[in-house]
């Protein structure tokens, strides 16, 4: 079975009170968010390993708690997919196959370069989380609530990133 078929499979059951089509649609939205957050946690760790220059240690130490929190988010989403009757798929190739965005392309780089790029990553993740929340409002309020809580944390993480690249006049230097 290919990864795309496995990730959209629905078991004979779902959460009580959720019809089969709503479960399938919810699983698809959650699967997209799972892929995004798996990608984000790996990207955050990549930046952690490769950031250099002024403020290195502050950024280096800021990123590990974000990695840990995002890793916990992926676990919560995967478990919700299973609860809904889906199959959470997190193998490396399946993540790459289902990803809709470009690869993070900075290797070793300065704090300002990495954080400018990371701000853009958070833009995409957070915007897509918000879109999924809107759709989940009709499909599954439990999944909607799950993503809403995560988005609060993700937006705070982005604020932490932006605080390093913001000017005194409130402009982002990326």
From TrEMBL:
It holds the Pfam family Ferritin. It comes from the Bacteria. GO terms for molecular function: DNA binding; ferric iron binding; oxidoreductase activity, acting on metal ions. InterPro entries: DPS_DNA-bd, DPS_DNA-bd_CS, Ferritin-like, Ferritin-like_SF, Ferritin_DPS_dom. Keywords: DNA-binding. The keyword Nucleus does not apply. The keyword Glycoprotein does not apply. Residues 27-166 form the Ferritin/DPS domain. Belongs to the Dps family. This is Starvation-inducible DNA-binding protein. It comes from Idiomarina aquatica.
């Amino acid at each position: 079975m290919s990864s795309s078929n496995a990730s959209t499979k629905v078991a004979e059951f779902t959460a009580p009170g959720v019809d089969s089509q709503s479960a399938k649609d919810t699983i698809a939205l959650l699967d997209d968010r799972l892929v995004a957050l798996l990608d984000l946690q790996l990207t955050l760790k990549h930046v952690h390993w490769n950031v250099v220059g002024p403020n290195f240690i502050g950024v280096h130490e800021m990123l590990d708690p974000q990695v840990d929190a995002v890793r916990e988010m992926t676990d919560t989403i995967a478990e919700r997919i299973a609860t809904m009757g889906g199959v959470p798929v997190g193998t490396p190739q399946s993540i790459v196959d289902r990803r809709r965005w470009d690869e993070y392309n900075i290797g070793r780089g300065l704090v300002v370069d990495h954080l400018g790029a990371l701000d853009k990553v958070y833009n995409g993740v957070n915007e897509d989380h918000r879109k999924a929340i809107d759709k989940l409002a009709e499909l599954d309020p439990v999944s909607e609530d799950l993503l809403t809580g995560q988005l609060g944390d993700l937006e705070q993480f982005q604020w932490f990133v932006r605080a390093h690249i913001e000017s005194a006049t409130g402009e982002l230097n990326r």
